[in-house]
Design goal:
The complex is a heterodimer of chains A (255) and B (78).
Chain A lengths: L2 H16 L10 H8 L4 H7 L5 H12 L7 H7 L10 H10 L6 H11 L7 H11 L10 H14 L2 E9 L2 E6 L2 E4 L2 E4 L3 E6 L15 E5 L2 E5 L2 H28 L1
Antiparallel strand pairs in A: 1-2, 1-6, 2-5, 3-4, 6-7
Helix pairs in contact in A: 1-2, 1-5, 4-5, 8-10
Chain B lengths: L3 E10 L2 E6 L4 E6 L10 E5 L2 E6 L1 H22 L1
Antiparallel strand pairs in B: 1-2, 1-4, 2-3, 4-5
């Protein structure tokens, strides 16, 4: 077990779990362990109960010959790094049918047919492709209001990032580029400042300052990114979005 | 991360609903306005937003699929 990878993963899993959107009911354990900097077996067992995130880590780890909680593995999944390139498309294809039960198998087949080996086991791709693999978004009755709601949920669920402009008690003002929906495709809108929660008890947020680049999940600052990570998340997000837009375009052309 | 979860709308009012998922959990404040789901409908929910409505047959299939996931995850943990 790699302690730093466990805590890294927990930082990103924490907020959607606390909102009740995924993972087990762990009664505050993840937050306590993050605040205490503990990465014991109990935390590992909790993180193994996440229905989608943990299988993704296993897939990446197996393909790259790494341990599941080695830092680079959850980093590949949440942020993006070269380990994603090591996952064979055939493995990701069968994984997508076997492990991701919430998706329509027909839509999954169509997505792989369109994207081939370009589809990455990256969290943002998973989130954005949800937009392309559900029935509603391209429907004829989608209003502007609905489009806004879909963009908001995609933006909240993907890992976004931004530059800290102001540090306040329990909140950061962060300059971000939120996801928008335009002409049936996804894009990153112009920069805007949003309020994001953070926990100063969780390392390294005791020392967060203006100019830091932070990652964000469901309006919660997960981590302060290194320059390499900031570059990677921008690069992988851009690639994910282009793939999903390709998918949306091909779906549109079939209608 | 969020998973797309399927469940049943057990109460709904003004575009918000309580949804009971096939995994045994529930959310009280799901936005069902995009799909205009009413009480008794089966929906697929991403985060706190319902993105699709399922037919009863598809809902049954999802329920069975979820049972398989639970079984597989229990096997992993053992």
């Amino acid at each position: 077990m790699k302690a730093d990878g466990v805590l890294f993963h927990a930082k990103y899993a924490f907020m959607p779990n606390s909102l009740g959107y995924c993972g087990p009911d762990e009664k505050g354990q993840i937050q306590r362990d993050l605040e205490g900097g503990r990465s014991d077996e109990e935390l590992v067992q909790t993180l193994q109960k996440f229905e989608a995130a943990y299988p993704f880590l296993k897939l990446i780890a197996k393909s790259a010959g790494r341990q599941v909680f080695e830092y680079s593995v959850p980093e590949a999944y949440w942020i993006g790094n070269r380990l994603l390139d090591m996952v064979p498309v055939s493995d990701f294809y069968s994984f997508s049918h076997r492990e991701i039960k919430g998706r329509d198998p027909k839509k999954v087949r169509e997505a792989f047919r369109e994207l081939g080996g370009a589809a990455p086991p990256h969290h943002t791709f998973y989130v954005m492709s949800t937009y392309a693999t559900t029935a509603v978004p391209d429907g004829p009755n989608v209003t502007n209001e609905a489009r806004g709601k879909i963009a908001e949920v995609v933006d909240n669920c993907r890992i976004s990032w931004g530059t800290v402009r102001k540090v306040e008690k329990g909140e950061l003002k962060v300059e971000v580029r939120p996801v928008g929906v335009e002409d049936g495709g996804l894009l990153l809108n112009r920069p805007a400042v949003k309020r994001v929660r953070y926990n100063p008890e969780v390392n390294p947020f005791g020392a967060v300052k203006g100019g830091d680049i932070v990652s964000i999940h469901w309006n919660y600052a997960c981590d302060i990114l290194t320059p390499r990570q900031a570059k990677n998340i921008a690069r992988y997000t851009d690639a994910d979005m282009k793939l999903v837009n390709r998918l949306l375009k091909s779906e549109g052309s079939r209608k | 991360m969020c998973v797309t979860r399927a469940g049943k709308v057990v109460s709904a009012s003004q575009g918000r609903a309580r949804v009971e998922f096939f995994d045994g959990r529930a959310l009280d404040d799901v936005d069902v306005s995009v799909v205009n789901a009413k009480k008794g409908a089966f929906v697929e929910v991403f985060g706190n937003l319902a993105l699709g409505v399922l037919s009863p047959a598809e809902a049954k299939r999802r329920k069975q699929a979820w049972a398989e996931v639970v079984k597989a995850m229990e096997a992993v943990r053992e």
